[in-house]
Write a structure and sequence with these properties.
Strand content: 5-15%
Number of helices: 9
Strand order of the largest sheet: 2-3-1-4
Number of domains: 2
CATH topology of the largest domain: Alpha-Beta Plaits
Number of strands: 4
Helix content: 55-70%
CATH class of the largest domain: Alpha Beta
Radius of gyration: 53 Å
CATH superfamily of the largest domain: Reverse transcriptase/Diguanylate cyclase domain
Largest sheet: 4 strands, antiparallel
Shape: rod-shaped
CATH architecture of the largest domain: 2-Layer Sandwich
């Protein structure tokens, strides 16, 4: 059983005052009854009037105190509890406590808050799902964009960068090496007798050779070196911070690898590489990517001309047939 609250000082003071005034009024009224009799006169003692006044004041004060405790204070308590519940700083079950005259409202308020929390939780769940869908679509778009960027800058057959990528980055590479006072080497590569291979063995054989050359170039590059296919059977290798000697060593390596690769091809003249090697440090006028590329192209033309002066030997066509020996 719940214990009753102890009486407050205001109640004690009020009851004591009423008792004192009542005692005084009773004494004065009793004395007036035994005083000299005056017919047709009713006299109320002053103490009784004081008792009535004090009683009225006590009733008024008690009524105000009741209103304050039963309504005003409870309104403030309930308001604070609702604000904390809305901010998730107070459990909804805490609203079940008594709130004086407002207690009949707490079940409805609890139900409203519960519905609000459910709706908010559902909204958060839907918002998370929406964000997840947006993130998934964004990832898909980014992957698609990355795929398109790769397709825009990569050669599909060889896996090397294409001519567009070369045009975009060559000037930047050359300028960076100039700023660092470092050399840069560029190799212009062309496949000799490639048309003969296509005419003899077909275009699939030519595509297979180009793909293999692209793999050889990629496997020969260092971290900061890049290879490009500029269309057809032309390739470019850019070697930042590489000297001419290093570029010529790369050219010899690629020529030897391709010679070994085409040794088994059944064509009259085996495809071979002609390479033009250029560095911007060799000539004062070479300070841009376009100038470096033009110089390498000129050196490639000279290398092709020298190779024509000393053509590769034509392999024997095999033993004569029986019909030839009989003739």
């Amino acid at each position: 059983m719940a214990r009753s609250a102890p009486p407050s000082w205001s109640r004690i003071l009020g009851v004591t005052s009423c008792l004192a005034v009542a005692r005084a009024a009773a004494g004065g009224y009793g004395a007036s009854l035994f005083s000299t009799y005056k017919p047709y006169a009713v006299r109320l003692p002053l103490s009784l009037l004081a008792l009535v006044g004090v009683g009225a004041i006590v009733l008024l004060f008690g009524g105000l105190l009741f209103v304050r405790r039963h309504w005003t204070t409870q309104v403030m308590r309930l308001r604070g509890a609702l604000e904390q519940a809305l901010e998730n700083q107070l459990l909804i079950e805490e609203l079940q406590r008594p709130y004086g005259g407002l207690s009949p409202l707490t079940p409805a308020l609890t139900e409203l808050l519960t519905q609000r929390h459910r709706q908010r939780a559902e909204f958060l769940r839907m918002d998370q799902e929406r964000q997840q869908r947006v993130a998934n679509k964004t990832d898909a778009l980014e992957r698609t964009a990355a795929k398109f960027r790769v397709q825009a800058t990569r050669d599909a057959l060889t896996g090397l960068y294409n001519k567009r990528a070369l045009d975009q980055c060559l000037d930047e590479i050359v300028q960076s090496c100039i700023d660092q006072r470092a050399p840069v080497c560029l190799l212009m590569i062309d496949v000799d007798d490639f048309k003969l291979l296509n005419d003899t063995l077909g275009h699939p054989a030519g595509d297979s050779l180009l793909k293999s050359i692209g793999q050889l170039i990629r496997s020969s590059l260092k971290d900061d070196e890049q290879g490009f296919r500029c269309g057809g059977d032309e390739f470019v290798v850019v070697m930042p911070r590489a000297t001419r000697e290093q570029g010529e060593a790369m050219a010899r390596r690629l020529r030897d690898l391709v010679d070994g690769l085409t040794k088994s091809l059944a064509v009259a003249r085996k495809p071979r590489l002609s390479v033009g090697v250029s560095t911007f440090s060799e000539r004062v006028g070479i300070t841009t990517g376009a100038a470096l590329l033009a110089d390498a192209d000129q050196r490639l033309y000279e290398a092709k001309f020298e190779r024509k002066l000393s053509p590769q030997p034509v392999p024997p066509m095999g033993p004569p047939s029986k019909e030839g020996r009989a003739a």
